[in-house]
Amino acid sequence: MQTLDPQQQTEIEAAAFRRLLKHLDDNKDVQNIDLMILADFCRNCLAKWMMAAAKEQGVEMDYDEARERVYGMPYSEWKELHQQPATPEQLAAFEAREAERKARGEA
């Protein structure tokens, strides 16, 4: 594996993150609950991780600002335009996933 200097590492990771955000933006039909069921993270998780990373760098960023950076618009607007109500099947799958996590001691 090629050795990267810290600047290259940061630039590559940042580019990959921007690509992930674009991919999620291009696939708005993929609902956050689906992401949570399948991958145990969603767009809101990314916003929380961004907010935590900003704090580590000494940068103030609140949750609303972080979500706007992830969603590309205010969350309330994205929610109104793109978020569908969770189906009973999605809720059941999410609850089953959460129960599995608790059983493994991860919650």
From TrEMBL:
Residues 30-95 form the SMc04008-like domain. Pfam families: DUF1244. It comes from the Bacteria. InterPro entries: SMc04008-like_domain, SMc04008-like_sf. Coiled coil: none annotated. This is SMc04008-like domain-containing protein. The lineage of its organism: Bacteria, Pseudomonadati, Pseudomonadota, Gammaproteobacteria, Oceanospirillales.
